[in-house]
Amino acid sequence: AKPQRKKSNVATFTINIDAMGFYAEIEMAKAAAKQTADEINETIQKDTKTNAERLMTAFRKKTEVK
Asked: How far apart are CA 66 and CA 51, in angstroms?
């Protein structure tokens, strides 16, 4: 009987990466993420009132002369 060879579980493959294109894609994704975050923050700043501002608005509504 011939001894059987062990089969390896290791696969070898080659990946060719265009590093410049890869980094360009990353930079574009980072820029898009930053722009989105800036837009969200701007919206939040416009829509957010402090507690003092809310109280002043409520106070003005109660004290208006009708």
From this structure: 26
20 vs 5: which has the higher pLDDT: 20
Q: H helices within 5-50, ranges in order?
A: 19-47
What does the pLDDT look like over 27-43, one tens digit per residue?
A: 999 999 999 999 988 88
Which among 27, 23, 24 has a CA at the least distance from the CA of 35?
27
Torsion of CA 35, 36, 38, 39, to 10 degrees: 120
pTM for the full model?
0.45
Cβ(49)–Cβ(57) under 8 Å?
Answer: yes
Q: How far apart are CA 13 and CA 27, in angstroms?
A: 28
CA 22 to chain CA centroid, nearest Å: 19
